[in-house]
């Protein structure tokens, strides 16, 4: 007589969903934005792309089809234009507030600068930290000395490897860990290039597969306990213990971040200091490690061997110059970051209450908007001509490089862009100068690793996480 309860519930749910979908299709301001029709009805297709690690490529294809503005779901839009980048990330200094996506990056259950959502709280936190990462501080001998020591250790590894070569993926991530930990903890910094126990920390941080558990937590936070049982969360016991211990040391050195936090007027609690340092450690390993790995792989391909020759010439002609006075080296790194941005995916923000006009379209308050470096760098072809080619020279043209710099999104933009960019640039410049003034790099004959970008939650890494290179000494 009567239909079972489950049938009635399913019917009611379908009816409600249909009403919402029709309302969205007819009345939502987002219905006027370019994008496939199904995106105004549901975010289901976007979720599938996220969970299968294809979100970035999917968005990229939509931009190719629909242009610089594309609707991703009933409440989400992606952009690639400079106008949108400025509005979302730099209006009022720090742009729009971050979305709950960044809650995933809490450390020790504590909000760090990176995982703080609103810009007011963020700018308070940043006040005490920013000076530590200013270029003038990075260039100090105590900071650069630590980076130089780690680059020397990397070179020793290359020399020892002889004709068999090394897995550059491993030791570049070690280098990034050692430099970041030195910046945070000075004398308590790691030496993972040489010490096995520190190497284990790098492995723990870099070889994890936590994409699905993280995304599930973000999309359905109330069910996070169930998801933790299904998808294993990223374990981090070694790094956690190291950071908790090191952040209690009172003699790390006055150039370190921990010293700065311990002595700030803000009276940071112990766990806040540890969380901040843990965040910077994590932020510094894979980004710089992957950037160097993608770049050295590219330089080792036959079509880029001439770039190695140009680098060598610049080093030989400018032996007394500082790292910041080598334009070709700078261009090579920038081009690497443009072609293989370690954070190529969307950096999501909420449109403020009342809505905003972005790139000519009115977007209501509360809608998630973002740009992804991958598309900004590859689809603005009038700015990056032959954008899919690795051409460091493009950055040497002083006229066009001004505009290219505006579109350079590898470190994000505005007040919430990467605070570690000067540190990262110094690390990469130092290492590349040491390597390419001594060696030519070539792919090892047994290098079988696939270097296609493998997307994680926000970052990408080489698919097989291995990159075997040979370091041939220059005669
Ligand atoms: C090539 C290397 C690096 C790249 C490409 C990179 C990229 C980025 C990007 C794109 C953001 C903004 C992300 C967003 O808003 O969603 C960011 C933020 C941040 N990065 Fe980096 N990063 C690099 C290296 C580093 C290093 C070495 C450190 C520190 C040791 C660091 C620390 C941070 C921190 C703390 C933030 C948050 C800043 C804030 O919220 O104000 N990064 N980075």
The count of helical stretches stands at: 20
Tell me, what's the shape?
A: globular
CATH homologous group name:
Cytochrome P450
Instruction: Give the fraction of residues assigned to helices.
Output: 40-55%
Cofactor: heme
Binding site for heme: 418
Transmembrane segments: 6-26
Family: Belongs to the cytochrome P450 family.
Structural write-up:
The chain has one domain (75-473): Cytochrome P450 (Cytochrome p450, Orthogonal Bundle). α8 crosses α20, α9 (168-185) runs antiparallel to α15 and α15 crosses α17 (327-339). It has 20 helices and 11 strands. 41% of the residues are buried. By secondary structure, it is α+β, with helices and mostly antiparallel strands. It starts with a helix and ends with a strand. A 4-stranded mixed sheet has the order 1-2-7-4, sandwiched between helices. Bound molecules: protoporphyrin IX containing FE. Residues 113-114, 126, 180, 183, 279-280, 283-284, 287-288, 291, 342-343, 347, 410-412, 416-420, 423-424 line the site of protoporphyrin IX containing FE.
Main traits of this protein?
single chain, 475 residues, alpha+beta, Cytochrome p450, 3-stranded antiparallel beta sheet, 8% strand, binds protoporphyrin IX containing FE, heme
Concise synopsis of the structure shown:
This protein has 475 residues and is of the alpha+beta class. It has helices spanning 5-27, 38-41, 44-51, 55-66, 82-90, 119-129, 135-138, 141-161, 168-185, 196-206, 211-219, 224-230, 237-246, 257-262, 270-300, 305-317, 327-339, 373-379, 398-407, 421-436; strands spanning 69-73, 76-79, 166-167, 349-350, 356-358, 361-363, 368-371, 439-443, 453-455, 460-462, 468-473. It has a single domain (75-473), classed as Cytochrome P450 (Cytochrome p450, Orthogonal Bundle), CATH 1.10.630.
């Amino acid at each position: 007589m009567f239909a079972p309860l489950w049938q009635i519930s399913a019917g009611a749910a379908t009816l409600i969903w249909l009403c919402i979908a029709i309302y969205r299709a007819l009345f939502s301001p987002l219905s006027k934005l370019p994008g496939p029709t199904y995106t105004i009805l549901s975010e289901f297709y976007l979720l599938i792309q996220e969970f299968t690690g294809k979100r970035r490529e999917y968005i990229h294809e939509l931009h190719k089809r629909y242009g610089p503005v594309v609707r991703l779901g009933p409440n989400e839009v992606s952009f690639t234009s400079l106008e949108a980048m400025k509005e979302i990330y730099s209006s009022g200094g720090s742009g729009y507030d971050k979305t709950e996506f960044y809650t995933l990056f809490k450390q020790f259950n504590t909000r760090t600068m990176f995982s703080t959502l609103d810009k007011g709280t963020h700018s308070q936190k940043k006040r005490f930290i920013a000076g530590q990462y200013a270029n003038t501080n990075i260039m100090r001998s105590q900071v650069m000395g630590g980076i130089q020591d780690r680059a020397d250790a990397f070179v020793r590894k290359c020399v020892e490897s002889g004709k068999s070569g090394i897995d550059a993926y491993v030791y570049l991530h070690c280098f990034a860990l050692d430099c970041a930990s030195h910046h945070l903890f000075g004398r308590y910094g790691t030496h993972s290039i040489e010490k096995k126990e520190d190497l284990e920390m790098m492995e723990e941080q870099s070889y994890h597969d936590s994409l699905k558990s993280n995304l599930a937590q973000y999309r359905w936070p109330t069910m996070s306990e169930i998801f933790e049982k299904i998808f294993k969360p990223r374990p981090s016991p070694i790094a956690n213990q190291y950071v908790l211990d090191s952040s209690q040391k009172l003699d790390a050195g006055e150039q370190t971040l921990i010293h700065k936090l311990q002595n700030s007027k803000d009276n940071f609690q112990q766990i806040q200091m540890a969380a901040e340092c843990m965040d910077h450690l994590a932020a510094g390993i894979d980004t710089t490690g992957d950037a160097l790995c993608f770049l050295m792989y590219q330089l080792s391909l036959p079509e880029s061997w001439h770039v190695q020759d140009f680098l060598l010439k610049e080093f030989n002609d400018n032996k007394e110059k500082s790292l910041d006075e080598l334009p070709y080296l700078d261009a090579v790194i920038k081009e690497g970051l443009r072609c293989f941005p370690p954070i190529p995916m969307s950096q999501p923000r909420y449109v403020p209450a009342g809505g905003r006009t972005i790139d000519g379209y009115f977007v209501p308050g509360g809608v998630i908007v973002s740009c992804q470096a991958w598309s900004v760098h590859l689809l603005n072809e009038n700015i990056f001509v032959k954008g899919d080619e690795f051409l460091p020279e493009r950055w040497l043209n002083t006229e066009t490089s001004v505009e290219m710099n505006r579109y350079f999104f590898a470190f994000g933009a505005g007040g919430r862009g990467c605070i570690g960019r000067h540190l990262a640039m110094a690390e990469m410049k130092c290492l590349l100068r040491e390597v390419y003034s001594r060696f030519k790099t070539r792919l090892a004959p047994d290098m079988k690793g696939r270097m296609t970008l493998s997307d994680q939650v926000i970052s990408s890494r080489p698919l097989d996480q291995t990159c075997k290179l040979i370091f041939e000494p220059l005669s």
